[in-house]
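Re-running the complex after MR caught last week's input typo. The corrected sequence lines follow. Everything else is unchanged.
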Amino acid sequence: MKRVAPESPQMRSLLRDWPNRGSLESKRALTAYTFLAIPMLFFLGIRIAPTIYAFAMSFFKKNGSGFTLYNYQKMFASPDFWHALTNTLLYVIITVPSQLAIGIVLALMIGRIERFKGLYRTIYFLPYITSAVAISWVWRLMYDPNNGFINAFLELFHIPAQQWLKSPSEALVAVSIVIIWQSSGYAALISMAGLESIPKSYYEAARIDGASPWQLFWRITWPLLNPTLVFLAVTGVIGALQTFTQIANLTGGSGGQAGGPLNSTLSIVVYVYNQGFNNFNLQFASAVTVVLFILILIVTILQMKLINRTYDY
Amino acid sequence: MRKRVDGAAIVIHFVLCVGILVVAMPFVWMVLSSFKTLPEFYTFKFLPKSWTLEAYQHIFAHTKYVRWYGNSFIVAIVVTVSELFFASLVGYTLAKHRFKGNKIIFILILSTMMVPTELLVIPWYVMSTALGWTDTYWSIMFPGMIQAYSVFLMRQFMLSVPDDLIAAGRIDGMSEFGIFLKVVLPQVTSALGALAILAFLGNWNAYLWPVIAITSENMRTLPVGMSLFSTADAGGLQWNLIMAMSTMAVVPIIIVYFIFQRRIVEGISLTGLK
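Corrected-run output:
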């Protein structure tokens, strides 16, 4: 065996690397920390610190000093806030199940046929990628009670003209229709991907055992599609809780604040915007965003519970 | 064997075609309306009377529409490039490097996803005003330069990059950054493509933060410009102009979408399932 001289370069390198391979590892760690330095500063400065700042702000009065619950008391006593909260929950209840239902039905229909699959998928997904601002204005024109496209269309079936966005009792539904129109394609696309990931052999095996199409759907498709549906439901609910752009552009301007008529379309985020950037009470608006944060947190925790549930097949 | 007529398929094709009418109608209505004159909006008529380009000429001559278009483009491109670069760099580091704090940093980044943008816009506004960023491109762009969601996505994709490739790069004496750039990134190009589309569209259509961040007419992005232009007129909505603006905002996106539809659609379903 060749001996290594104690002072030779090989020995030095062995001594450096071998007994505590630490230096190599710490060099690698240094690389990692270098790569992460700017992103970590970003997350601390642009996400984490502002989150804390928003919470802190909500406990201060506009132009006042000292910790106070004033904003929260004012908020919970304000009928507008409760209006916004109820409307937001209505948006969730109306838009999410509709999007899911339309999405799944579209996915099942497109999955069932053989020709033009790609074309249908492309066309139905189109509304999702187009600008919500532009699209809202187009719908606003179509909803016009006097000479809009929709009332003209309904007239063909002898349905009387509706007031749509001008009516406090119909406006929220009218806004919801725009949201459903724009988002159902996403639910369809994700459901299609979910359906395609179910192995065909399951269906063949079940058919050999004499299962009916009804049984195939409820025993195979539905349970295996469940994780996809949970994902869609959760992203849908979180998105609906944050509804803003459509409401602002369908109802804002021409003499009224967004959220009208008579606050009938007001959502939490529109309320935040009006309070923070029209009335310039940023502290009060922060308190409202804290409520929104808590709502989203509840949905996220529910999602974790749902996803961790094990399915028995 | 004779081919049987598939009755169910015919019914499905019929229903899907009716659905396409519902999807397409607003777009058709938008384009048709953009060729009308303002008085034509006071009565219901399907087709424009004389197919005038008046609305388009007015927009180019009397509004800052072109400027807003350019603003949106600059913002969307810069933010997308930054988002892709940092998402893959952080994703790669978290997936392939072992170091103290890896897990904590990952959880920390993920946890920021739970905070809605709406909670952050007020502090961002305060910050942007205090630092004198108001009415700069930077004030529109800074919140989106890195996204927790895309970091998470890229980390998932980076996990499938073979360790041997990275080790080979080290043996060849490449720098760690060189390995990331020349060895790792080429392995995840399809994920990057999908993410690029998502990021670009998200920024191109972004509304809430830009409408808060910008005060000058020159710095508006396209959605903000359109929205504020449309609501600004107290004397009644100028529908022909609004529809022409919407058409120019939407139609190029539709064309690009149809050219790259396969990649876009597959990319989005890929990211939705990860």
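None of the earlier attempt is carried over here. Residues 9-57 of chain A form one domain. The mean pLDDT of chain A is 88.
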